[in-house]
Task: structure prediction
Amino acid sequence: MALKLNPFLASEPITKSPPPPSPSFALPPMASRSLRSPTIFMASTLRSGAASTKEVESVKKSFMPPREVHVQVTHSMPPQKIEIFKSMEDWAEKNILVHLKPVEKCWQPQDFLPDPASDGFEDQVRELRERAKEIPDDYFVVLVGDMITEEALPTYQTMLNTLDGVRDETGASPTSWAIWTRAWTAEENRHGDLLNKYLYLSGRVDMRQIEKTIQYLIGSGMDPRTENSPYLGFIYTSFQERATFISHGNTARHAKEYGDLKLAQICGTIASDEKRHETAYTKIVEKLFEIDPDGTVLAFADMMRKKISMPAHLMYDGHDDNLFDHFSAVAQRLSVYTAKDYADILEFLVGRWKVENVTGLSAEGRKAQDYVCGLPPRIRRLEERAQGRAKEGPNVPFSWIFNRQVKL
Amino acid sequence: MAFVTRTPARASFALKQVQVPVSKICNVRSVSLPVAGRSFPSLKARHFQVFCAAKKETVDKVCHIIRQQLALPDDATVIGESNISQLGADSLDTVEIVMAIEEEFGILVEEDSAQSITTVQEAADMIEEQLKKKGA
Result:
């Protein structure tokens, strides 16, 4: 039995140094183990202790990006349920697409950045950089991590298009689901663009390292373990959108505290998009609870048992073997996104979907219901214990800020 | 695509990444406890571990904690050799089991110690070691 004092957050508690293998879960925390080896079989044969320490040491020098270790399961939803989503298309048009904003009414990154077409451009840039000077490195580490997550958008659109019954079959499919996915992607695309330009202009960060990290991350992809099931998929996205809403909301608040009101506006605007998306996804799952309560509660329990893995948990910058864990430790310390947030989000969703009151469940369904309803306090208790025992974290360099060090 | 071309040998460092008892620390810790004159019928025909085994009372308490945590049916076998994960404990269960052990025995369990525990017996041994340290 491997103890992770906080398996829901970063892979290891802040006390540990060097960090052990990391289950990284969503939001900041957990879930899939990342393994730095070409195949899982390698790891299992090495377990017998055959590898000499020398070999281990010399291999350590050659860093590689992490990969998912869990077995990748596909199409776990019974095919007859695809019908459910076909029959929901009208409902989705009336109830989900309304949460999209018409492009003409949308903000664009340029609205929040110095205007290159104006004479005052250089002054605006100077002011931006002056404000950014007042913001500490640890905040930038978290902001960069968030930006990198946003910039891996191709992975998320891909993920949505893996889901049976709702995928965009051609790239321009006219179904409500496909319209939603494309428009959602288009809205999200602005988030990465805006943060990218801000960070570029700020002068506080090493853009090349960040760009490298993004390239690695998109190359790595991610498997959120949604198994092509829209039940699992929309539960996952519901959780994630709320998580990003909370996270960007916190970075906005901190930016304000540091006196950068423009940056606060940037983060706050992104957060409000996420809130709107959360509303849409939770509505879909609410409808699924109506249509198929047993299937949906089982899916909810399944996702929570597997733990919601963070989209950027495979992040890698060519230097730090435990980059995601380090990043999420800082996010935890700054209260941008914490294990407590994970528990809060879960509790929120249990309430939002009225899971306690769902009836007509099978025996398995009732077990799942009990599990999900009882989970938030268990996570909280765990988190309290971890916090109570957390010692001061070590200082760790981040290539994103020119190897300046930040406390975990 | 770079990682695809890595040779198998380079994967060896992954060893440290796998959550498995790399060396059976319990084995190394095996100390011969004087058990002369006492018979442990329940530990008969076991391997060498019986000589460093924790008190039956401790093992029983651990079994009880695990039964509670995992809500096991009365007829489920939980003994010293039982593998805790195989009994159905997920990662959340295992942390909660450790927390219950800490409360029950008034000890603090460090992550390093917990990492190497896979069976009830190992948990009981670790507990006794902690209690000894505390007593010292």
